[in-house]
């Protein structure tokens, strides 16, 4: 149990419990809302890894041999429900995701290339600025990755590139989505 402060003047008090946060995460996971398909045209041009077999072939020469310079797609999804814990200073979360890569063939079918499982820990620190309520999201600790599928001899390089992409694009996207939101 947590004691809420006494109100001496009009204020808005917001309390979020782990039960509420984990229930919401469970509902989103069960509904399939924690999935996203990424195609090459969705990535910024400055992203260090373009979704083509020519670029990804650096990590797996066999991919480029089997499918020379073909477009690729990524299917990002949660493998299991995210776990959220509430602390006085922040919300902490454990994310269990996967990135499944497909080669888009000339007849528009997709051939599976590899599956990369990524586990990461994040923290969201709430902030109020003026009349805006928001949070700042950041990665904490190392993200771990495991790979299945085509032989990828350069797994460490691929893992590092994907972690860099998560840091460079995933965290800023999360920050733009969760803050700042106007408070009525």
From TrEMBL:
The keyword Nucleotide-binding does not apply. Gene3D superfamilies: Bactericidal permeability-increasing protein, domain 2. InterPro entries: Bactericidal_perm-incr_a/b_dom, BPI/LBP/Plunc, Lipid-bd_serum_glycop_C. SUPFAM superfamilies: Bactericidal permeability-increasing protein, BPI (SSF55394). Keywords: Antibiotic, Antimicrobial, Disulfide bond, Glycoprotein, Immunity, Innate immunity, Membrane, Secreted, Signal, Transmembrane, Transmembrane helix. It is found in: Secreted. GO terms for molecular function: lipopolysaccharide binding. Residues 6-183 form the Lipid-binding serum glycoprotein C-terminal domain. One of its GO terms (cellular component) is extracellular space. One of its GO terms (biological process) is lipopolysaccharide-mediated signaling pathway. The cytotoxic action of BPI is limited to many species of Gram-negative bacteria; this specificity may be explained by a strong affinity of the very basic N-terminal half for the negatively charged lipopolysaccharides that are unique to the Gram-negative bacterial outer envelope. The N-terminal region may be exposed to the interior of the granule, whereas the C-terminal portion may be embedded in the membrane. During phagocytosis and degranulation, proteases may be released and activated and cleave BPI at the junction of the N- and C-terminal portions of the molecule, providing controlled release of the N-terminal antibacterial fragment when bacteria are ingested. This is Bactericidal permeability-increasing protein. The lineage of its organism: Eukaryota, Metazoa, Chordata, Craniata, Vertebrata.
